[in-house]
## 1
Amino acid sequence: MSNEAYHAAKKDLSSTDPMKRFVSAVYFANNIHTDMNKELEACRRSERVRHIKLALDKALHRLSNSAPVASVEIDQSGEGEQPEQLKRHLKNQAIDEFSGVILHELAPKLGMLDNCLKREFDSYESSQAKNHVERLTQIFGAIESLRKSTHKPENKENDLSQLVKNIAYEEVGEKTDINISLEGLQPCIINSDPDLLTLALSNAIRNSCESLLLLEDVEYKTLTISWGTSDKDSWICVIDNGIGFRGDPKAAFRIGNTSKQGHTGFGMGIMQQAMENIGGYAELSAIETGGAKLLLRWGNF
């Protein structure tokens, strides 16, 4: 990209014309300029247009993934607070390094423990020890998914409608008492990272299924998945009539936060991390008549 394009985009970030701000934000989402982190942060704080915010989020996320910590300048004017770019970088780095060590050092030992218990105890298959080993295996699987959610996105053209169908039928499987409804444009061609979208949507649908299966004495359990796209952004909405949730929706995305027995508490956090990595977000809300609505939205840049 030319120096002229850079200066034009920099100037248009503060334009009163939303279209100019959007084109400028998309430029910085697609072209990394490490000197722009403070200005992009300031624009993101003041921006009110949704698709422009998504483009700025992606620009800042790419900056956080591309620049080493040493090169990220901390803004001292924010009363000691670190800029979002640095926070994202540190978060991704911490997740990747911590999960990598845990999986490398402990996961193989868990497999060895499982094999030893099978050989040394005749009643292992019906024991509590087996339940605990399976629980740990489940947690290690969640940690691996969390690590994948921090990977750099690789955009490619794919059919969102087919992606949704494949994940929905795989996750719902033989749960025949759940009535699934799919509503959206077919085909729905987008340019995004299918692996990160799969990670996010798989956890979203799995969470809804778990909520539905906890319902008692309810004949009609419904799961509705809709999707769509425009020239600016794409979205997937997952609605169920399950047990819903209580409290602050944002708290549901904290890793380890769960009220479901046998649940790792990683699913919502993995979903949010994967969406942030493609420059989007996950939003959870309660439905007055019962159940929950989960929205995944990301920009087409």
## 2
Amino acid sequence: MSRFRPGLLPSLLVLLLLPCLLALGFWQLARAEEKRELLAAHQAQQLAAPISINELERHANPAYTRVQLQGFFDVQHTVLLDNRTRDGKVGVEVLQPFYDQASGLWLLLNRGWLPWPDRRIAPVFATPDTPLRLQATVYVPLGEAFQLQGAEPANAWPRLISEVKPETLWQQLGRGGFRYEIRLDPGPASFQSDWPVVAMSPDKHMGYAVQWFAMAAALLGLFIYLGLSNAREIHHEPSHRPA
């Protein structure tokens, strides 16, 4: 022990920080693996034939399942998902209730992104008023469920929102509806519908993990260096005891 004397304060700091840095690194590794599994599941689902909403309700995990819809839009209750960007441009995603006639359920259908360069002027868009046959994909968000938070009064439509929870909308409208957002495939009724599967790629999570582990290694190396350096200084101190 005489060869290693890091001191009390550095020891306490290492005991506090090192587990945190390692935990963050392993958390990023877990997130990277989660994103890989999500991307693989999405790719597999995109190759599968679309199914009906009745079949979908029997799926334990409906995420990224392609569905076939037949019905019509509710033009009166549009919600606009705010602060969505594409290629550096700010806009909104247009979500509208869609009544699926085969299942008898309402679905919150995301028709895609529209630019909104001037917020003093409401976005302008058209909605088909005839029955449609559409294909779409179920979107299940990662982490905590979205919540509906309207910046507009509860009776104002279209309603500008920052996050979406379909079940809350169905409760407000007094309807039976599907619990997840459904994103429309490119087609005549869609706007710009190029949603990324994940916000952050697995490689980026791996890069963050490397950074956290590097910081942990640097902290441990500094701790060892400080302990050895202090021990040498103490060892070489001249003795002041009388001869």
